[in-house]
Every structure is written in structure tokens, then in C-alpha cells.
Amino acid sequence: MTWPFKTKGLPAGSRAGGVCAIWLVLANAASFAQAETLVFAAASLRDVLQDVAQLSDTKVTVSATGSGTIARQVAQGAPADVIVLAHDQWMDWLETEGVVDPSHRHIVARNTLVVIGPAKSAALQAPNDMLDRLGTDRLAMGQRDAVPAGLYAKAWLQRVELWDKTKNQLAETDNVRGALAFVARGEAPLGIVYATDAQADINVSVVYDIPPQDHPPITYPGAALTPAGAEFLTLLKSEPAQLVFEQHGFKSP
After folding, report:
1. Is residue 27 marked as binding?
2. Is 194 part of any known ligand binding site?
């Protein structure tokens, strides 16, 4: 596949022609002066990628939001140079849409899940202890069927046989940082987020470390969409960048 990739867009009935046209105009303008690398990244990567960007010789702008939102934007023609998502599902979909070349796709980091509570909350000894802590309150997590952190959280709750007991008490958010904020503000007594998100907010504490073998592997696939994006993806896999990931609590690929 040659640069730049051609996008097929969203399935019929869901394409946003006007939005796509605007994105394409921006993309064409950017191609004349590639003085900046635009990174679309999962919300949980915002902080670490901003730090990694300092290692680049080129100005890097990180736009972070939910992985599903990124996938749809890029499929509509958003001018990202590189994307880094929090789940293979959306990256697989972009491959089927002809947006992502599998040869330009690589895992850049890994993560784990934790249960969090407001700062200084007492630890939980076992998953079932969540029920007493929740009472009639809500459990914060990403959307169960769309947000990667929510998909992973649902899989874990099913594994420990708590899904049916909690699914009607969920406070579901558009990205994992939204779930983190719910707990940090005291609006939910518990939440399920990535370990790295819990590390990044002093207003929450980890009350239960979820064993990695109890949920699907959490990986961050990255894909280059332009030559500038390929350079940044190479940087992400470098030893200096991986040290930054480690400092933020991520695991190496």
C-alpha cells in the first residue's frame, strides 16, 4: 500500500460527506508542509504520548479520545499521521475498511486493569467484596460494547461471575478517563480502569489489582498512515520511548 492511504469511509448510511470533505481539505493542506506530526491516540495514552513527543525532532500534536471515535474519524478522512488505539477490534475494522495497512501496524505497549476507589479507600480482599462496597451506587467503567477499557472490564466481570450482579449499576463513559473522573469526583465508589490511569490521578487509589490472566491481554496497536507517522511509530518502539512508557506504568510490547 502506498502513501497516503485511501479511505473507504464508513458503511453506507453512516458516512458524513461534509465532514469527510473538510478532513480531506485539511489533509491536502498538511501535505504541502509536513512540519507537524498529528497523532490520534486512545485517551489512556494522552500523558505518555505527550512526554514521548518531546523526544521527536518534529513537532508532535497528540489528540486523545476514545478508540472508537478515532477509528470513525480516520475512516471519514481525518488527517492523522499515526493512530494508537487501546484495542485490536477497532484497528481490525480499519484494516477491513482499507485505511490501515497491516504491514504498518505494531503493538507499542501493554497494560493491566485495576479496581479503583476515591483516594484513601480501603483495599478489597476479593472481587466479591465489590458488591458490599457498591451497595446501590454505580460502578464506573467505559461503555461495555464500544470502549476498550469497558470491553476488558466486562470480560473480567464475567470471568469472576459478577457481571449479572453489576450490569444494571454501571456508570458507562465514552472513554476510560471519564470513568476515572467519576471516581475521582466521588460520584462512584468504585471504577474499573487501566493501572496507568490510576497512577496518573492522586484523587483515586487502587483497591484491587486485577490479575492479568483474568482478563484479555490489553495491548495498544499503533498504525502509521503517512511517512511522518511511520517515523513516529518507529520512535514509539525505541528504547528511550519505551522507558517513558515504563515510567507511566505501561508494560513493554
Report:
1. no
2. yes
Q: What is the pLDDT of residues 155-177, one digit of tens each?
A: 999 999 999 999 999 999 999 99
For domain 17-110+220-247, give its CATH number from 3.60.15.10, 3.10.100.10, 3.40.190.10, 3.30.479.20.
3.40.190.10
Q: Are 113 and 218 in contact (CB under 8 A)?
A: yes
Higher pLDDT, 11 or 98: 98
Place of cell 478522512: 77
What was the pLDDT predicted at 238? 97
Equal fold, 17-110+220-247 vs 113-214: yes
Is 149 flagged in the annotation as binding? yes
Residue 78 CA to residue 20 CA, distance in Å, equals 7
Q: Is 11 left (phi over 0), alpha (psi -120 to 50) or beta?
A: beta
Q: Which amino acid is at 217?
A: P
Transcribe 118-170 into DSSP letters.
ETTPPPPSSTTHHHHHHTTSPEEEE-TTTSHHHHHHHHHHHHTT-HHHHGGGE
| Count, residues in the chain | 253
Calpha distance 169→180 (Å, rounded): 16
Residues with Cβ within 8 Å of 15's Cβ and at least 6 positions away in sequence, in order, are 9, 76
